[in-house]
């Protein structure tokens, strides 16, 4: 049997859910308490309650739109503290690699040379990732 295609709620011109006025969580029409925060969903019939509910619905939709736009844009940049941390880590790894490399040449130690190249590579890679344009 073919499954019927589901149409979005906007095409039906009716809502099958009711938003909680406390947290904005969508609930079924038959529910009397919110499934997320356990707040009462019983509504007052009147202009002010309708106005308040409309405000909460619009605020909830705005917050969802903002989250969706932030996810589409991705991470804009690095914070100042994180940048300083990555810079310090890159400098530390690079200088440690240079120190071990010079020490391995004077000692003729192959294993220290490999460790030095590894540390130097990690340091340069960290600094390159920090200063490279991400767009």
TrEMBL record:
Q: Which domain of life is it from?
A: Bacteria
What are the protein's UniProt keywords?
A: Membrane, Transmembrane, Transmembrane helix
Where are the membrane-spanning stretches?
83-101, 113-131
Q: What is this protein called?
A: Uncharacterized protein
Specify the species.
Nitrospina gracilis (strain 3/211)
């Amino acid at each position: 049997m073919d499954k019927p295609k589901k149409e979005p709620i906007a095409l039906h011109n009716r809502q099958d859910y009711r938003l909680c006025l406390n947290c904005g969580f969508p609930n079924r029409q038959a529910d009397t308490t919110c499934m997320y925060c356990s707040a009462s969903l019983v509504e007052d019939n009147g202009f002010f309650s309708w106005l308040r509910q409309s405000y909460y619905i619009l605020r909830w939709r705005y917050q969802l739109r903002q989250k969706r736009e932030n996810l589409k844009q991705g991470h804009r940049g690095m914070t100042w503290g994180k940048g300083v941390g990555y810079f310090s880590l890159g400098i530390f790894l690079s200088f440690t690699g240079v120190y071990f490399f010079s020490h391995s040449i004077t000692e003729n130690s192959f294993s220290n040379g490999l460790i030095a190249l590894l540390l130097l590579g990690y340091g340069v890679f960290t600094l390159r990732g920090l200063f490279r344009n991400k767009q």
